[in-house]
Design a protein that fits this description.
659 residues, alpha+beta, four-stranded antiparallel sheet, 27 strands, 19% strand, disordered N terminus
């Protein structure tokens, strides 16, 4: 035990002396042996420090700090390490497998809740389904904000038609890729994508049996606006419900297989869209009508409840006032102010809040996964899916209306003044082809890429430095044998070897972590010869030095000479190679993941993120899916290489170049 403590103490003393100098070594560890006091010389009454000895570490540090780009590179690498290893602990809602159809291929923006200033004090209604929102003022003026581009179609939903701008609008609603509006005179308007007959009955739509065209009475503007109860949109479908129960519904029948069941219905009390089903409440009030037996017939009052009961039994004479559909779940508002839940909900949910005594819900609105409710006391609550913190409502009092977007909610007072808004603001780096947040995946992927690089380098150091020391110091047949082994390892082509191995392992069931460990080990085992060559070369030079000869003459063990006398004197060269090998290992992991061998989706790494964007459509239309990831990878590796090159220069006592 004492011997180990001496080894650790010796290493600590050596490190402090190398970095901070002899003064701090003696201060922290004490002098090795008594020395006579040094005479302090004065020049013109001032201590003359011209003969003071500066430690090698301090010299290197001073020379390094003179290189501005190198200092900048250190700052960049430190920030990058802090971001990829610390930031994930604060991404409490992130998980690798998250996907969202309605949010895919969105460009960078933080404007999803940027309600126009003219509308903020005069809100009549707000609606959204995906990446944009539409608002209506009390004067009937339409506003659109958020991301206006619809995929690669070239359509900009924020370009409101001139006839809409000139009309006085009574109702607006937003779907996945379209907006519809009803004028106060009954005129019908629509814009955005019409590929599936979202708002116009073109000849293509009329001739396609999988599409239900806009009803003629709606197209002709013949409906009575004063008797409209609800206007709503789904993924690629829309509906208008009249107060007498008549329902007008149209859109993509393939997106909503049960849409046919609602055509021509005249007994609907309320209607809405989930992601895959049209859901309605008929006049019988006994079930959530879908036209498909077995769906949405059981209810519960809390998300965490396991048991459910029949809706008819749960109602027990009560009636349903509102039906609000999220992506896969439904919230029912009963006439006594209580709510019931039916369907499926995500795992990261905020539970239904406990209300105050005498408090009850008077309105419920639904987003993609969350619900927002307004109570008789003017309080606002949000609950349900909370991936984007859309179910974390701030304290709001005095609200008279609420509106829920896809991942946002808005509370307004009786005059239409916007009191508060909460939820998803946008995506700093945009989203990928699965709807995942690229910024979050860059952070999570950076941790994987850097961890693989770091572990691979550690393995390379352990194997390479040990073999290099042994080969260089022992010489003879040991040196010849070890160097031939190193040459054999060096001759293995990495990428072909990995691709062949990937094919062989294709039939083997391996977890992501197991694949990750294998990559680290393979990179380390195949990468050690570089360290061995450098270490051996330095040892061959160092072993002819006088201090080694003196140690041998004193009978010091060869292993002690190698590790205590030679290794500390060549550590600077090894340190330089560590930085360069770390960057190279990161690039290798990225390349392997890009080629399909390495970290697989959904677990992110910078390599597989670039691989998913390696197609002409993404390169041209969705540039953010590869630009940010590649820029961060290039910046990180260039900065690490710069640090290595600078260390090589400042550690060379013969170097006098200012770079």
């Amino acid at each position: 035990m004492k011997k180990k403590e001496n080894v650790f103490r010796t290493l600590a003393r050596w490190f402090v002396r190398w970095i901070f100098g002899l003064k701090y070594e003696e201060k922290w560890f004490g002098a090795k042996e008594a020395e006579e006091p040094k005479e302090i010389k004065f020049k013109d009454g001032v201590p003359d420090d011209s003969e003071l000895i500066v430690s090698p570490g301090r010299q290197i540090f001073n020379r390094f700090m003179e290189r501005k780009f190198a200092v900048f590179s250190v700052c960049v690498v430190l920030v990058m390490f802090a971001v990829v290893f610390i930031a994930p602990h604060f991404m409490t809602k992130y998980y690798d497998a998250f996907t969202e159809t309605t949010q895919k291929d969105l460009p960078p923006t933080l404007s999803l809740m940027s309600v126009p200033g003219e509308l903020q004090g005069n809100v009549k209604m707000i609606d959204s389904y995906s990446s944009f929102s539409v608002g209506l003022s009390n004067e009937g003026k339409v506003y659109v904000w958020g991301i206006g581009g619809i995929g690669a179609t070239g359509i900009n939903i924020k370009e409101i038609p001139e006839e809409v701008l000139n009309a006085k609008i009574a109702y607006v609603a937003a779907g996945q890729d379209h907006i519809i509006a009803i004028g106060e005179d009954g005129a019908f308007y629509g814009w955005g994508s019409n590929r599936f007959g979202q708002y116009a009955a073109t000849e293509t739509v009329l001739n396609n049996p999988n599409l239900e065209p806009v009803p003629e009475i709606v197209r002709n503007g013949e409906i009575d606006v004063n008797h409209i109860k609800k206007v709503t949109c789904g993924y690629q479908a829309s509906a208008i419900l009249m107060d007498d129960g008549t329902l007008y519904i149209w859109g993509n029948k393939q997106a909503y297989a049960n849409l046919d069941k609602f055509i021509g219905r005249t007994n609907i009390v309320d209607v809405d869209f989930t992601l895959n089903y049209v859901v309605g409440l008929d006049s019988k009030q006994a079930s959530v009508y879908t036209g498909t037996k077995g769906l949405f017939t059981n209810v519960r009052t809390e998300f965490s409840q396991v048991g459910t009961q029949k809706l008819s039994a749960y109602l027990d004479g009560r009636k349903i006032n509102e039906i609000r559909a999220a992506s896969t779940g439904i919230c029912l508002l009963l006439d006594d102010g209580s709510i019931a839940l039916t369907g499926d909900f995500p795992s990261d949910v905020q539970e239904v809040p406990a209300l105050e005594e005498g408090e009850y819900f008077v309105d419920i609105e639904a987003g993609t996964y969350h619900f927002s409710g307004l109570t008789n006391l003017g309080h606002v609550y949000s609950f349900g899916g909370d991936h984007y913190r859309q179910a974390e409502a701030p304290k709001v009092t005095g609200a008279k209306k609420i509106f829920a977007g896809a991942f946002q909610s808005y509370a307004v007072d009786e005059n239409g003044k916007l009191l508060n808004k909460w939820g998803l603001r946008g995506y700093l780096f945009g989203t990928d082809d699965r709807g995942a947040n690229i910024a979050e995946r860059v952070v999570a992927g950076g941790r994987i890429t850097m961890t693989v690089g770091a572990i691979a380098v550690i393995i390379e150091i352990i194997i390479g430095v040990s073999i290099g020391l042994l080969a260089g110091f022992a010489g003879g047949w040991v040196d010849i044998f070890l160097m031939r082994v190193a040459e054999v390892i060096s001759s293995i082509p990495l990428y072909p070897f990995m691709l062949i191995l990937n094919s062989l392992l294709a039939q083997v069931s391996m977890s992501t972590d197991e694949r990750l460990y294998m990559i680290m080990v393979i990179l380390g085992v195949l990468g050690w010869p570089g360290f061995a060559y450098i270490t051996r070369a330095q040892v061959l030079v160092a072993r002819e030095s006088e201090y080694v000869t003196a140690a041998q003459a004193m009978g010091v063990k060869p292993s002690r000479i190698a590790f205590k006398h030679i290794l500390p004197n060549i550590v600077s060269v090894i340190l330089v190679n560590i930085t360069l090998s770390f960057a190279a290992s990161m690039q290798t992991e990225t390349s392997l993941s890009f080629l399909g061998f390495g970290v697989n989706y959904p677990q992110p790494s910078w390599g597989n993120m670039l691989s998913r964007a390696s197609n002409a459509v993404a390169a041209i239309n969705f540039w953010w899916q590869w630009v940010f990831t590649s820029a961060i990878l290039i910046l990180t590796t260039v900065c690490i290489n710069t640090i290595g090159d600078t260390l090589r220069d400042v550690m060379d006592p013969k170097s006098t170049n200012d770079k």
